[in-house]
Amino acid sequence: MNQKIRVVHYLNQFFAQIGGEEKADVGPGFKDGPAGPGRALQQALGENGDVIATIFCGDNYFAENQDTVVNELIRLLAERKPDLLIAGPAFESGRYGIACGAICQAAQQRLGIAAVAGMDADNVGAGLYRKNIYIVNSGETVARMVPTLQRMAALGLKLARVEPIGKPEQEGYLSRGIKRNEFAAKPPAERAVDMLLTKLRGDEFKSEIAPPKFTASKAAAPLRDLKSAVIALVTDGGLVPEGNPDKIEPGRPTRFTTISIAGVNSLDADKYDAVHSGYDTAIANRDPNRLVPLDTMRDLEREGVIGKLHEFVHSTGGAHAAVDNATNIGQGIAARLKAAGVTGVILTST
Amino acid sequence: MRLDLGLIHIKDVCFGAKTSIAADILSIDRQELISLLEQEPLFERVEIELARPGDSCRIIRVLDVVEPRYRLDGPNFPGALEPNGLVGDGQTRALKNVAVIETDQLATRSRNMIDMCGPATDYSPIGNTHNVVLLPYPKTGADKDDYRLAVKKAGLKTAVYLGAAAKDVTPHETQVFELPPVALNQGPKDLPRIAYIFPMHSHQHPTQQNETVFYGSNIQGFMPTIVHPNEILDGALMFSYSAFTWFAQNHPMIYELYRRHGVDLWFAGVVLTVAPVTIAEKERNTALAARLAKEVLSADGIIATKIGGGAVDTDLMMIYTRAEEMGMKATLIIMERYPDTGITFVPQNVNALVTPGLTRDAITLPAVARVIGGDTVALDNANPDNSNPGITLVPAQEKLNLWIGDIVGAISQVGASRLTTYMS
Fold this sequence. Notes:
The structure holds two protein chains of two kinds.
Chain A: E1 5-12, E2 29-32, H1 38-45, E3 49-57, H2 59-64, H3 66-80, E4 84-87, H4 94-111, E5 114-119, H5 124-129, E6 134-137, H6 145-160, H7 168-171, E7 179-183, H8 188-201, E8 230-235, E9 239-241, E10 257-260, E11 272-274, H9 282-286, H10 294-302, E12 308-315, H11 323-339, E13 344-348
Parallel strand pairs in A: 1-3, 1-4, 4-5, 5-6, 8-12, 8-13
Antiparallel strand pairs in A: 2-3, 9-11, 10-12
Chain B: E1 2-9, E2 12-15, E3 20-22, E4 25-28, H1 30-37, E5 43-51, E6 57-59, E7 62-66, E8 69-71, E9 90-96, E10 98-103, E11 114-115, E12 130-138, H2 144-163, E13 173-178, E14 193-202, E15 225-227, H3 229-233, H4 246-249, H5 252-260, E16 266-275, H6 279-296, E17 301-304, H7 311-325, E18 329-333, E19 353-354, E20 362-365, E21 370-372, E22 376-380, E23 391-395, E24 400-403, E25 419-423
Parallel strand pairs in B: 1-9, 2-4, 6-21, 10-12, 14-16, 14-17, 17-18, 18-19
Antiparallel strand pairs in B: 1-13, 3-4, 5-12, 6-11, 7-10, 8-9, 15-16, 20-24, 22-23
C-alpha cells in the first residue's frame, strides 16, 4: 500500500476564489485544503493523495515581484512538507502560466519535490519552462479543467513515487526536448534495412531522428577595407591559458574564455593549452599558433594588411555543444566583439 | 567467395590442465596462456580471470572484446597477428558464448565496463558471454600507446589460442556466408540491390603509425574500396577506438544483409572507407564511396554506419547526399550522445536515420561481489547543465550511477543494440 501523497495546489487569485482581475495585485497567501478546481484535483487523486493546502498569488503581483513571490511561496510550501506541487492549469493565460512554471521549477530545484504544471502548449510559460518541468497540455479553455487535472494528478503521483514516466503522448505532458532510450522490438540494423526497403518502395516511413531546428542568421556584408579593419581571433578549438583558469569544458561547452593577447606576438606552447575532446590536440599543444594564428596575424598587422588585431581572443570547446549553449556562447562573444568595435572575425575551428 | 563459420556453442569455461573443449566446456590451461602472453616485452606480468554469466561480477577498464576464432585454412588476423594473408574464405571455427576481454591497466579513466548480472545484461550481449579477462600489467615506463597496442595484440593472440582448441571439434552448426564476384552477383529483378558503406574509423583521433586496423594497415590515407563482407567477419578488421572488434566479427549490418539476401533484398556488397579529417578528403572519399556503390556494385539503395565521434556525422551526411544525388536511396545508422543536443549536422534532405540509442542516458548498476580490472571507476560528473565537468574516482564494487554508453556493447555504432530513442 502506497503512502498518501501530500499535495499542495497553486492557483491564481481568480481560481483560488479571491477575486477577478480587480484582485490581480493580491500578494502570495495560502488556504488549508483544496480551493476552487482543487476539489476536482482531490477527486482525481482519490485515495492516493490529499490536497493539504492551496497557495496562491495575484497574477499581476506575481509578474511584478516574481523573485520575492517565489521565495515567499517556497517558504509557505516548505512549511507544509508536501510531496507534490500541482500548479494550475493556467490554460492560455500568460501571466498565470509563467507563475505556474516558475513555482514548479523552484519547488523542484529548491525543495526537491515533484511538480506538475498545466497550461496550453502555446502559453508563454510553456515555452519558458517545458524543458525543466513537466507541463500537462490543458488546451486553451477552462472547459478541459477536469480531464487536465486528472492527467496532472496521474503524472504527479508517478513523479512523487519516483515511478518511470512514459512518453509525452501517453502521459499528456508537453515534450521537454529531452531524448530517452527505450527497448525496441528489432535491432537497429534490421530497422535500417526495413526503413531503406520501405523508402525504395516509395511507401511512408519515419526517420528516428528529427533534424535540429536552427534560426537562420544573416551574414554581415564583406569588409570594404582591410587596412582599417579591426580583426578578432575566435576559436572553438579549446585554446586556454596554461591551467585553464576559466575551466573551459573539453566537451559540451557552456561558456567561453577571454584571453588577453595585448603585447603578445606569438602563442608560446608553455603558456597555452588546447582543451577539446573531439580531436587530437597534440599539434595544437605543440604550437598553439596553428590553432589560433596569432603569429601570422601580427605579421599582417605589422605589414599594414589589416588595421589592427583585437586585443582579446575568445575561445570555447566545440565538441558536442548543445545548440542552446552554442547559441548563447556565440551571442555572448558577438556582443563583446561588437561593443569593442571589432569589424571582422577569423574563426578557427577543428 | 564462401566462408563456413563453424559454431561451437560453449556452455561453460573453466581453468584446467590442458586447453581443450570437451562436452561443450572450454577448459583453459591458465599458465600456458599466461606464458604465451608474457612473451610481450612491454608486460611485467599477465593475469587471467574468468567471469561467468550471472556472476556478481564487474569487469572494468575494458579496451577491446574479441570472439575466439580459429581459421583452419589460413592465417588468423593476418597483418595484425600472423603474417600477411587473406581471410573470409574456407573454414573458421567460432566459440560462441565466449569473449576475450582486454583490460587496459593504464586507462584509469576508462569507463568501459561489463556487468555479468543485473540490468546491464539486458542491454549488451557481452554481459551474457563467458568472459576470459586479460589483465596485462605494463612494465614501469612503458609507453601508453605502445602498451595499448600490445594489449590489443594480446587479445587477438588469446582469441586464436582459445579458438585453436576447436580445431578438431565438430561444430554444432555451420553458418555459410557466400557472395559471388561483383560481375556475377545478380539476383532477381524485383529484389532491390543494397550496398553497405562502412567508414571503419574516424581519423579525428588518428591511428598510431604501427597500429593494425585493416589487414595490418594503419589505414592512414585509406581510400574507399570494395571489400568482400566476409573479410570483415573473418579477422581482417580490428577497430582502433569507439567500437569493439567483437562487433566486426559479428557485424550486425553485414549479418542482417546476408540474412535477407535473396529474401527481400539482394546484398550488392560492401564499400569500406574511413572518415578523414579535412573537408577536401571528406568530399573525395564520400563521393568515391557512393560512386563505388552505384557504378561498381550497381546498388539501388545504401546503408551507411559510422565509427567514431560527432565529426563522422559529416561524412555520413555527405555519403547520404551523394548517394541520393546519384539516384540511390539511403539510410543511416547514427548514434545519439546527449539527451538535449540532438544530431546537429542533419541537412534538410536527410530523412532516413535510425538510432542505436543514446549513450548519455542514466542507468544505475547494483553493487557487486567482485571486480576484475581495477579498484576504481572514473565516473563522469557531467550533469545536465555540465556545471561540474570532470571525473570522480569511486570504488568500482559499489552501486554506480553511470551512462548506458559506458556499458560495453550496449550501443554499437554498426547497428547492434536493443534500443531506440524517443523525445520525452
